[in-house]
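One thing: could you explain this record?
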Amino acid sequence: MFKNNRFQPFLKKCREGLSVVVLPLALFQLIRTIFLPTSMDVMLTALLFFLYVGYLKKWL
């Protein structure tokens, strides 16, 4: 009756876009965190790296 794969192409494009954007952003944030560390920068860097590892491990 209802198809469950309605959003799959959209989610696949979002996942591929995530891989392109997250790694350079995470590296920039890491460099920024090394020079001017704040607690928010550290949390954002960790979040970006966890997102990228999740993409590599196919968890997302």
Observations:
- The longest helix spans residues 8-35.
